Structure formats: C-alpha cells, structure tokens
Amino acid sequence: MSYFTRSAAPSSLTGWRSPAVLLMIMAGAMQLSFAGWWNLMNNFAVQELAFTGREIGIQQSIREIPGFLSFAAIFLLIIMREQTLAYISLALLGIGVAATGYFPTEIGFYATTLIMSLGFHYYETMAQSLSLQWLPKATAAASMGKIIAVGAFAQLVAYGLIFIGWKMFDLSFTTVFLVSGCLTLAVLVFLLAAYPKFREGVPQRKKLVLRKRYWLFYALTFMAGARRQIFTVFAGFLMVERFGYDVHEVAGLFLLNGLFNMALAPKIGHLIVRFGERKALMLEYIGLIAVFLGYAFVTNENVAAGLYVVDHAFFAIAIAIKTYFQKIADPGDIAPTSGVAFTINHIAAVFIPVVFGFIWLYSPAAVFVAGAAMAGASLILASIIPNNPSAGNEVTFWFRQPAPQAAE
C-alpha cells in the first residue's frame, strides 16, 4: 500500500493507517522542520546577521506573504488533490529550512524564509481543510487536540536535541537547519510509502467562497492572526534582545512549551467538546489580555519566560475557532473557506511585523499594550458565539435581547 498504488475512503481504514493518524504524523513532520527553524531564527538573525527590530519586522512580513496568498490554494486544487498539495508543501518546508544556513545574508535569509513559509502555510491550509472533512463533528475538537499533542511531541524532539547538542557538540546554525529540514523530508518519504490516497468526504467547490453568514468566523480568524503576530514576532524577540537568551536557552523555553502543549492540548480539546466554543475562546482572550500587559511591563527574565509559556499554552484553544466553523459550514465550503480563512488570518500579518517593528524601536511596551487591545476586541467577538452553533444559528447578539419583564 502506498500513495501511488491505492485510493481509499477516509472511513475504510482504522488503526495506525487511519486518516486521523496520518494527520498526526503530518503535524509531527511539519514541526520537526518548523520548530528547529523557529528555535534558531531570532538568534541567527541577531548573532549572525545583526538584525534589529526593523529587519526582523521585514523578515517576518515576508514570512507571512504566503499566508496572505493562501486563498490561491483553491486554484491548485483544480489540478491536484488536497493530500497531494499537503505533501508538496511539506517538501517545500523541509527544503527551505535545510537551505537556510547556507545563505547567511540578509537577502538570503529573506529568500529561504519565503520558500519555507510557502510550504508551512499551504500545509497548514490543507491540514485544516482535511481535518474538518475527515474528523467527525462530535469528536473533532478532541481529535484536533491529539494532533496538536503529536506536533508538540515533535517540537520536544527538535528542541530537546538542540538544547542538549548545541553546547555539547558545538553545533552550527547551518548543521541544525540542515538536519531539521531533512527530518521532515524523511518522514514525508514514509508517508508516501505507508498511506494511500484518501478521498475527500464531500466534493469541494473549486472557487473562492465568501458567505455573509460566516462573518463572525472571518472576524475571529482576522483577530487571531493579528494577536499571533505579537507573540510569534515580538515575544520571542523580547527574550533574545532584552534578556539575552542564547540558542540553548531558547530551546529550553520552547521545550517547556512543548511539554505543556503535549499534556494540555488533548485536555483542551475535550473541554471544548464539553463546554463549547464560546466559553473556551472567552477564557483564552481574558487570559491573553493579562499576558500581553505582563509583557509590556516585565523586567525579570524568569517572569518573562513564564508569560511566554502561558501565552503559548493558549494557542491550543484556537481549535475552537475551527470547530465553530465546522458546525456552521456547508460541507462543500470547507476547502475553499480554509484558504480564504488563512488569507484573512494573514492580512494583519503582512503589515503588523513591519509597522510594529518601527514602533518597537521607540517603545516595546506599546507593542504589547496594542496586543492586549486586540485580545479585548476578540473577547467581544467570542461573546456572540451561540452556545450551540449550527447552520442558521451562527451568531447570538445577547446585548440586543430585551431584558426579561419583572413579574407583577
């Protein structure tokens, strides 16, 4: 059985060859490259290329351009299936990461970042679409939690190897980038050999889809993208620039993040199933307001590290945005809307790193106060998700409902 010799329905295989396990292994393969790249990225930029907030902002904006163009994935699906595009994307990710250390210049870093990012963002678009098609609605959040946990385990492997090996074996940036990328490529070869072509559940529309009734999903996705930039670009940069974290120390911090995600993500998935998307997202955004305000005024490196770990732990709750959409969506809209959603998610990502990179030069605290304001806006949006969302019941404007009449 291989991708080239057999086609199968998603429900026809169980055990380790099931679509759910395939999604888990793909998540792990992605993280082997991306986690290694992410661990080294800030140190490589500062120590090898002497980047400041301006250059790191430009580099991160370049990284987000493929995310902004994720809607184009729907046109690629005219000539290939989603699983194929996911595999090609993993290959691009691995190649881009493996090549990074061989181009230690500003332009070289921008170029390899773009290649890596094309793979990462198109993989994420396809993984989200396939998850929503292959996983049953009743248990999708729990299964997605397990997928995140497997990705977190792969992060642990990457960060653990860097944490132990960086000083012990005097590793270079070039070596770690190369090994990280090649690990993803090796797992991809295994996937091609071990798994068949899985057919999509419902035929997907091969055109862009924008529906008025999905507006809250779009708004939550946009705000999640804006908030993510504050964490991914500036929280990590804070640890390196202000508190002087070295590569192995950043790896140790990411190792903690991976441990928390591996332990918490499945539980978070089950809690979303139990309590619903509205309560889960409101909890996330209340916590994020506190975390971002903490970043703005922190002066102790251990407190900053604690905020970073807590901030990262909240990412798993974003599953609730995906399962909210799964419950309200027309099944044929999932693939095209996943591409559109990734584009919406990255609208802010294209300009926030550059604009906030310049703000950073004058006031790092202002960057994180703005992040707290974004979390506050997201909290308001999350509050209008119905307790039981479905097609036709996408939004509940609780603040417009008349107050109950007092009994006479």
From TrEMBL:
Pfam (any one): MFS_1
Keyword Transmembrane helix recorded: yes
Transmembrane annotation, as ranges: 20-40, 60-78, 85-103, 109-126, 147-166, 172-195, 215-238, 250-268, 280-298, 304-325, 337-359, 365-385
Annotated coiled-coil segments of the chain: none
Matches recorded under InterPro entries: MFS, MFS_trans_sf
Gene Ontology molecular-function annotations: transmembrane transporter activity
UniProt entry keywords in alphabetical sequence: Membrane, Transmembrane, Transmembrane helix
UniProt protein name: MFS transporter
